[in-house]
Design a protein that fits this description.
Blueprint: H1 5-15, H2 22-26, H3 29-51, H4 55-78, H5 84-97, H6 100-103, H7 111-130, H8 148-161, H9 169-193, H10 198-221, H11 226-250, H12 260-272
Helix pairs in contact: 1-4, 3-4, 8-10, 9-10, 11-12
């Protein structure tokens, strides 16, 4: 019979036992952390494979991610802190509590009101957990440890849920052009000040950040996850650049000896042949 969730939990318990695997027994919260992040990213990338008609990869990566969660819960259980049942019970209770329009008699007019209510419930939960009404923020729930592009998307998504948002995507394009002009001005100032001008270099960094932030807002308004969009472009760049490398090798040429015009020609060839598809 196919293995179920309980079988996976039992497997993890056995792997951590004295009859199990020495490596698994040595793992701690700290040593597992990089693997948890790696598996989360691999699952994230596999979403694109699923969208392209290859869902089996996503299924595999979700399994790897689930294994890390069960692994953490087993370590916690051995430390007497919590069990996998505590994990599933807590998330089940939270989801029921945060869906009063499904499991209670609350009514919502649209998704915008639903999301505002969601954020209010999260804020109230944080206040109750903290035991006091401190100087908390709506944005506290966005981790500063996630990639910056993802963080910007999450920050603006949360702010938008309470009405702090651009009304039209066209307005963000105006902001985008404004940020481009400011970046150009910062570059000119850095050039005039010389290579050692740290203040001018800092302004360039800030203006580039503002430009990326504006692009992230455009993506959000168009219902595009910017991290996933950039990943797609990164993949496309890898495939097209590999075409350049392979084509040069077929000609008996080393990559470093090719001219920019030669490489650009091969890049356009990759585009015309839909090598990135």
């Amino acid at each position: 019979m196919p293995a179920n969730f309980d079988d996976l939990v039992a497997l993890m318990s056995h792997l951590r036992s004295h009859e199990g695997c020495p490596w698994d027994r040595e793992q701690t919260y700290a040593t597992l952390a990089p693997m948890l992040l790696e598996e989360a990213y691999e699952a994230f990338e596999a979403v694109e494979d699923a969208r392209a008609g290859r869902p089996e990869h996503l299924s595999e990566e979700l399994g790897d991610l689930l294994f890390q969660i069960v692994f953490y819960a087993q370590v916690a259980a051995e430390r007497g802190e919590f069990t996998i049942d505590d994990v599933t019970d807590a998330i089940h209770s939270k989801m029921v509590r945060r869906h009063p329009h499904v499991f209670a008699d609350a009514a919502v007019r649209d998704n915008a009101e639903l999301l505002r209510n969601w954020e209010q419930m999260k804020g109230e939960e944080k206040r109750v957990e903290g035991g006091r009404d401190d100087d908390s923020s709506l944005l506290d729930g966005v981790s500063a440890r996630v990639p910056a592009l993802m963080e910007a998307h999450q920050l603006t998504t949360k702010a938008a849920r309470v009405g702090f948002d651009w009304q039209r995507v066209e307005d963000i394009f105006d902001k985008l052009h404004e940020e481009i002009d400011e970046l150009r001005a910062a570059i000119r100032e850095r050039r005039d000040a010389g290579a050692e001008a740290e203040a001018e270099q800092q302004r360039v960094r800030e203006e580039i950040g503002d430009l990326l932030f504006a692009v992230t807002n455009i993506a959000r308004h168009l219902q595009v996850e910017p991290e996933a969009a950039l990943k797609l472009t990164n993949r496309k760049f890898r495939r097209r650049f590999r075409h350049i490398e392979r084509s040069l090798r077929a000609r008996g040429r080393a990559l470093g000896t090719a001219t920019l015009d030669e490489m650009e020609e091969l890049w356009q060839e990759a585009k015309s042949k839909s090598i990135d598809e």
